[in-house]
Design brief:
By secondary structure, this protein is α+β, with helices and mostly antiparallel strands. It has three domains: 298 residues, no CATH class; 247 residues, Thrombin, subunit H, CATH 2.40.10.120; 55 residues, no CATH class. It is 30% helix and 24% strand. It contains 21 helices and 27 strands. The strands form five sheets. It has a ten-stranded mixed sheet with strand order 3-2-6-4-5-8-7-11-9-10. Strands 21, 22, 23, 24, 25, 26 and 27 form a seven-stranded antiparallel sheet that branches. Strand 14 and strand 15 form a beta hairpin. Helix 15 packs antiparallel against helix 16 and helix 20 runs antiparallel to helix 21. The termini are far apart.
Length: 691
Amino acid sequence: MRSENMSKKGSKIQPRKSGPMDKYVKPCGKPETSPGCASPLTQRPLSTPKQDEELHATHSFEWVGSDKNPTNLTCGKTGTIEDSLKKSAQFRVLAKKNTNRELVIVRDGRAISSHFPCSFIKNERLTVKYIKAADKHSQLPRNRASAIRQGQVPPDKLVVFHVVTKGGEKVARIMKNKELKIKFEEITVYGLKGEKVKEALKRDGRLLKKAFQTNCALIDKNTEVRTEMHNLVDDLDGKTVKIKMISKCTQPESQPESLEDADVLQSESQKSDSEIQVENQDPQQQSTTNQSVTDNISKGNSKQNGIRQTEKIPNSENLKSHLSFQVKQRVKGMKTGLSKRSNIQNLFRVEYGKSAETCREVKTMKKLMALSDSVCAVRINGKPSGSGFLLFDKFVLTNGHVIKNIYNESTKQLSESMTVHFSFESLDQWDSGAKVEEVTAWEYYCDNSGHMNDWALLRISSDQKLPRCLLKHFGFLPSGGGICIIGHPNDGVKKIDPCWIIPTDNRKQVVQNHCNGNLDGVLPDSKQYFKDQEYINFITNNFFESVSQSVNGLKQVLTYKSCFYFGSSGSPVFDEHCNVVAMHSAGYEYRNGRGERSSVIEFGYPLSLILEHIIIQMVENARFDVLKKYLACNYSQHQNMMSNLKKLVESRNLTSFQKAFNNLVHTNEERLKMFFGLLLQREEPVPMDTL
């Protein structure tokens, strides 16, 4: 964090008046003087070392380092959490070993800053980690930490909230250190009651400048209520927010929002030692002194410039935010025109607005949570490569493209080590996973109809207890409604995303919405569009026209808009009844004019089609051992699957099924003989309850 980003009142607890809408004018009389204050700038002498080490009630906490052995610490002096940790000999040894790395302190799974007030940590266990330092590692300036070290932040004045490390679609990277975004989903930020959100975030020091230079706001993760940067932090206590760009307008780094702020900016570079001393006073003395300073400044300015004393209008912050929002909406309507706005369909609001219809009943979410145990992360040589789920017995289903670079179809061998992990739900969790022993079946090609076959069936080791099989919850594609995807997006922990099916007739409109929102040009992640790695405006229409043609040609897929992009291939897609209906597979991605990745639309392949191809391969390759495992997993839609499979066998005249049946006639494989008999008989198949 850089000292120049700090305003004069950055460490004060007292509320600030801001914005021209906040005040009404009152005739100014003789400025009042605080009792006993002959000169406000010389009210209090400089702090002594004894005062700097102000005592507070003792509190204890534990910390755990790389050796996983907890160490207890008891603190009785005000300071930062790093100050307290430095009192531990074990921590000093650990810090010395990681001189060129960045310290990360983890509290409740979230990264807190090293200058977090230690008095707020009581009877908790912290985890101390070190990560790769950023190119320009920010250090905490002394003047930012002085208020904390001198006991000016009582716990009742502290506001603590959490910020998601990945920003919104138009401002995805917000962290200075990319390792923080990779290893942690959220960071914890503290603020002082009465200060602005922007000041608290700047003090934290871990965010990039663009979070402040662009018109960004904090969006509540649960309610999606917006909090703008100039608002006070008071109402953010305990909330989790995401930083999103609300317009493309660029805000100046430092803009006076009131007469008082203008005075601060003009005198910022000329602060005297006495003024700095005032900033370090306790809240009560500080309030008295600040009033005297303001009165004297107002008196001097009123003589020269005619500036009159002002007072704050009650509830002015909410009024200002409401009026500002209305003005922006009016301006936006004037620019776009009513005729253009009328073309925006309800689908767009459902797709991106997460309407109330995407909500799920508690019982549905509980069932999905139980089924999520069967979803796994797929890793190659320990590195995340995709997602998958336990289909039946010891067989995991994922996308074929996940393993295409390490699988030799001729020898049917993997060239690299591969594992699946069912319990990766927290960054602190780690297990060796289940080893992939065989690629039982695999397809990655486009057939004559234009349909892409992209799946892989993996047999895993049986040396651990496995979760339930999801084949028992199989379902066919729904015509519409809500769905839920469970997987490991962005190579991270297991997540769930409730979203909405995009019907075939509405795909074109979704593509057009993305085209309208990227007038500055895009750079598709496709070599045919690259030209010296530059963003070219005329590419926009060409790219989205190609996407429109391609997505409308997808006849046998489920399309939707999801936040599951990279690393989530192979995730199961559940319908509103918690049935697995598809496998999340791909999307049409691009980079916008700011270099941020996005996706036009995502899609998944129907599980019913994949099951048909798995069965056909098992028969053609004589893998009856696997086929018996499949038949042993009874599920409610088995009869319907048999009907569809029978039609497929008859239409393709698959002689391999007849040969397999002939070879089984003189064996004791009654289950297999009944299976083939039902497929090969001319009349409609009978119920498979006896299988």
